[in-house]
């Protein structure tokens, strides 16, 4: 049996018997706690100004001295090499994202499979690929 917690377009599932406590909620993330593990599920806004507030909200959660995983669609690449096609990504947005990652002692977890997690599905020279979905973890 699976318990489903609704959050806009997302669902977070666990097996019955697993204790999951809501910890924080906003338009761009839901954070829960299970045991000593803190899990933040992210769907960052595509607008830089709105997305920027997410880094501040999550940084407050990062102050806890517990294992933390931040998973989802961040809607920004961390380096230019994580994008193929399209224009150059916004340097300021990348800098803010990287500052969030480093100031919270987060690391990109190892991924397997495709290099890019998103494609705009356009044709020809308008086609763009990006790695905007990821899992960040701390080492606590």
From TrEMBL:
<dbReference type="InterPro" id="IPR036691">
    <property type="entry name" value="Endo/exonu/phosph_ase_sf"/>
</dbReference>
<feature type="signal peptide">
    <location>
        <begin position="1"/>
        <end position="15"/>
    </location>
</feature>
<keyword id="KW-0732">Signal</keyword>
<protein>
    <recommendedName>
        <fullName>Endonuclease/exonuclease/phosphatase domain-containing protein</fullName>
    </recommendedName>
</protein>
